[in-house]
Amino acid sequence: MSAFSFTAPYITEEEELAEREALTEEERKQIRRDIGLEPSNTVAGGPSVPTAQIVVEKIQQVQEQLEQLSEAEKYRQALAAAPVVVTAETDFQAFLRLEAWDVKRAAQRVARYWSLRTEIFASSKESSSAPCEILPLTLQGALTAEERALLSLGLVFLLPDDRHGRAVMYFDRTRFTLRVGTREAFLRVLLYVLYTISYRNNPQFVLLLNVKGFDLYKHFDRTLLKKLLKLIEALPIELKCLHMCGGPGSSVMSIVLPVFKFMFGPHLRLRTQIQSGSDYEISERLKEFGLDDCHCLPFIRGAIYNQEQCADFLKEQRRKERARRGGE
User: Fold this and answer.
1) Of the CATH numbers 2.60.120.1440, 3.50.50.60, 3.90.1150.10, 3.40.525.10, which one belongs to the domain with range 136-327?
2) Which residues form a coiled coil (predicted)?
């Protein structure tokens, strides 16, 4: 894990307050919709959808941009090495929709995704100079047996949708330590779960982060957090709200939280909710944001319950992956 630095950049309460006071009324309303306090717009990238002909033209324009962009080199290399896998995994329409049909931004997002995708899975190679085989991002494809075992522990998985039809991702940060798995293996597991959100009809999601018992030296990992944030910014998915759920009180979180919030940036920072207190208090507050009992139970029942819920998630993923293979 990355050592925590007490000189790391952080944001102060005064700076946060100034950010919120500078918001327009429409921005405040949008944040309320994003965090689930009001009905949400479930169409990523905005409500307008171009005609089929315009969509085809924009996809062609994205592909043309990817031939020219210097930052798309990893995409071009991957496409040359594994055209079937890369074509299947790159839903240009999803990238365009998320970027409000802006061709340049969509192409840049595709480029970011494939740079991270190849980097994260290349790290499993014993020799960094050896060519990395690009396998489908499925349970039986890119993930190894060890990574599937790590995934089955129930540290990260999808719960049922919230009341606004958005995916809900549960991430138990405090159960992940170097005794469980390496950072590299966990990044591959995180990428897989995030990728499953990308081919849903609605790619918006809420992240429930369990930080109960967060330990500064066991759990703080700046590199892991930075990579997670980069993955969210590269995949065609949209994080609408982050709930950080802790216990009745933690002096450690009061130290770490300003650093986390600085790393989040203003957009996510304004959509981050800190939930603390008893299990009952946290559950009741989460329900105010469009969540239900099924979203609260992972915090209350713990590891065995979460492994069972994760098993249901993985069973559904196997079914979807078989169906997708059958349609190819």
Assistant:
1) 3.40.525.10
2) 14-72
